[in-house]
């Protein structure tokens, strides 16, 4: 399928690592020009998505460098203290997860929207953790639930600019390896997808080929979240 992304101008947050990096590379491979925003030193546009002033300046600089803005991919995110029960989690750690995953995505949407035309597309990274959880993931799950809700609300407020989110299960990235360990990823008894596979999901939503898809959370979890508890 020709995704018709050639010549599009795209901005990717969290583009220095993992899913964001894969999205940036995939967009470039499809002929888009990509500006990468990340807090990592050495990123093309260094910014912290939780710092409104810094993010606004980085977005303005990126849009000027791109010469416009058609596609935005919000990948910047943190997992927080995965594995720690809520009763043992300091308020500062909870606030940090919500700051990056919720405030950061809202500020991104706020600052990119004025630059986007009617066929613009914003794709946010949610997670299957918005819908399913295991003990030790309450702040992260709450933050990703907020991404799903903001996606729906933004799609209403920003129309005709489209806003969708992708909600993958475990993806082999530095984040997942730091949280779960290399062995858990490499010898997993559950399906693990690659960052490149998530990038294809993102690119479809970024593309005009999905122009009727708006305000949706695409759950990419191999069907786990739709399975009945009935032991059939
Ligand atoms: N890896 C998984 O299993 C998985 C599954 C579902 C969803 N996700 C989501 O996908 C997104 C990307 O995760 P990943 O696995 O590629 O992680 P990653 O750690 O490999 O990459 C995240 C990137 O975001 C950047 N970043 C973090 N906080 C930032 C901030 N405040 N400002 C600017 N940049 C910041 C980091 O520097 C890094 O480059 C996240 O939103 C994550 O929650 C990941």
CATH level 1 name: Alpha Beta
In CATH, the topology is named Rossmann fold
Please state the second-level CATH architecture. Answer: 3-Layer(aba) Sandwich
Helix count, DSSP H or I runs of 4 or more residues: 7
Helix and strand sequence: EHEEHEHEHEEHHEHE
- Based on secondary structure, the structural category is alpha/beta
According to DSSP, the number of beta strands is: 9
Bound small molecules, deduplicated: nicotinamide-adenine-dinucleotide
State the fourth-level CATH superfamily.
NAD(P)-binding Rossmann-like Domain
Intertermini distance: 37 Å
Would you identify the regions where 5 or more consecutive residues have pLDDT less than 50? none
Number of domains: 1
Percent helix range: 40-55%
Q: Quick one: overall form? A: globular
Largest sheet: 7 strands, parallel
Fold and architecture overview:
There is one protein chain. With about 230 residues, this protein is of the alpha/beta class. The chain has one domain (about 10-220): 3-Layer(aba) Sandwich (Rossmann fold), CATH 3.40.50.720. It is about 40% helix and about 15% strand. It is built from 7 helices and 9 strands; from the N terminus they run βαββαβαβαββααβαβ. The protein has helices at about 20-30, 50-65, 90-110, 140-160, 175-180, 180-185, 195-205, and strands at about 10-15, 35-40, 45, 70-75, 120-125, 160-170, 170, 195, 215-220. The strands form 2 sheets. Strands 3-2-1-4-5-6-9 form a 7-stranded parallel sheet, with helices on both faces. Helix 1 (about 20-30) crosses helix 7 and helix 2 (about 50-65) packs parallel to helix 3. The longest helix is centred in the middle third of the chain and has 22 residues, at about 90-110. The protein is globular. The structure holds nicotinamide-adenine-dinucleotide. Nicotinamide-adenine-dinucleotide binds next to helix 1, helix 3 and helix 5.
């Amino acid at each position: 399928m020709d995704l018709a992304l050639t010549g599009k101008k795209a901005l990717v947050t969290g583009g220095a690592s993992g899913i964001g990096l894969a999205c940036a590379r995939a967009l470039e491979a499809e002929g888009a020009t990509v500006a990468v925003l990340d807090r990592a030193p050495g990123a093309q546009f260094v910014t912290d998505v939780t710092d409104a002033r810094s993010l606004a300046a980085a977005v303005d600089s990126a849009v000027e460098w791109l010469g416009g803005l058609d596609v935005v991919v919000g990948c910047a995110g943190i997992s927080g203290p995965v594995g720690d029960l809520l009763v043992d989690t300091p308020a500062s750690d909870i606030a940090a997860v919500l700051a990056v995953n919720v405030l950061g995505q809202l500020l991104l949407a706020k600052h990119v929207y004025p630059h986007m035309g009617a066929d613009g597309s914003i794709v946010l990274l949610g997670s299957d953790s918005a819908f399913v959880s295991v003990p030790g993931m309450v702040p992260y799950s709450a933050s990703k639930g907020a991404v799903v809700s903001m996606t729906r609300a933004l799609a209403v407020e920003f129309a005709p600019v489209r806003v969708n989110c992708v909600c993958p299960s475990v993806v082999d990235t530095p984040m997942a390896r730091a949280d779960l360990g290399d062995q858990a990823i490499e010898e997993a008894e559950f399906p693990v997808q690659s960052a490149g596979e998530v990038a294809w999901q993102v690119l479809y939503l970024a593309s005009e080929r999905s122009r009727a898809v708006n305000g949706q959370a695409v759950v990419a979890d191999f069907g786990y979240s739709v399975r009945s508890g009935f032991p059939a």
